[in-house]
From TrEMBL:
<feature type="domain" description="N-acetyltransferase">
    <location>
        <begin position="11"/>
        <end position="152"/>
    </location>
</feature>
<dbReference type="InterPro" id="IPR000182">
    <property type="entry name" value="GNAT_dom"/>
</dbReference>
<dbReference type="Pfam" id="PF00583">
    <property type="entry name" value="Acetyltransf_1"/>
</dbReference>
<protein>
    <submittedName>
        <fullName>GNAT family N-acetyltransferase</fullName>
    </submittedName>
</protein>
<dbReference type="GO" id="GO:0016747">
    <property type="term" value="F:acyltransferase activity, transferring groups other than amino-acyl groups"/>
</dbReference>
<dbReference type="InterPro" id="IPR016181">
    <property type="entry name" value="Acyl_CoA_acyltransferase"/>
</dbReference>
<dbReference type="InterPro" id="IPR041496">
    <property type="entry name" value="YitH/HolE_GNAT"/>
</dbReference>
<dbReference type="InterPro" id="IPR052729">
    <property type="entry name" value="Acyl/Acetyltrans_Enzymes"/>
</dbReference>
<dbReference type="Pfam" id="PF18014">
    <property type="entry name" value="Acetyltransf_18"/>
</dbReference>
<keyword id="KW-0808">Transferase</keyword>
Amino acid sequence: MVDATATDITYQLRPMDNNDLESAYQLTQNLHWPHRREDWATMLKLSHTVGLEIDGKLVGTACSVVQGQHASIGLIVVADEYQGLGLGRRLMEAIMQLAGQRHLFLTATVAGKPLYEKLGFHVYGRIKQFQGNAKCPTDYPSGSLSNELSLRQYQTSDHDSIIELMNSASKMERTKVAEEIFEISEEIVLLEKNNQLQGFAAFRPFGRGYAIGPVVAQNQSEATTLIESILAKYQGRFIRIDTPIQFDLEPMLLKWNLQQADDVTLMSLGPHPYSEQAPYTYSVVTQAIG
């Protein structure tokens, strides 16, 4: 635990644990972020954490998920009444120290981007968030799968292959993240070509409803096939997907009544996690995890 003073406010920086779950949830609720208690529980399980406490009350959070030589940073939160006092920077410096010598990456809002730039982060891309109650377009399905391609449900025997694919698409070691996401997913759809695994998409509860992510595929067509198979099955559900803009999934998502809700900046300190060849990550787990 670290005691410190910023602008005449004495605060403590300390690790978070499950006893902080309700306070952390209320912090993001006050900011109108969609995270459920269950989403916070997942982050606390996966992350190194820093909590910022004033007068015995949790007023700030920061999380870092180690993924091999990379680490994501997310859920950098400071309560409204303590904004503008430099506490966000204190949280960032503390969580960066916990991440060690790893390559760091995060998603930045417009408000947070100047701070991250001061800390040495550079822009490497953007993610668009789409969400809404899925509605089947009139032209779906536009055709059948080729004879080489097939969709099927995840089985426990797929465990190692799907983690290998997920790691390959990100150039990170994501076993711990993958296993946690598999455990909470309601469905994982696999795409095979000539009985060889090509990609997958996970569908799970998150935020105001459900999320599709991660989605890993060899190309846009196969990513679309995976995503549409889930959207068609769960029409009417409130579904969210966070996708890097270079993959141009926007036209398809709009057809399914998923509207753009946010546009955030991808930033890294050191090499960013990105595959220059297939497979690719067409939808991230969450903005905080990558």
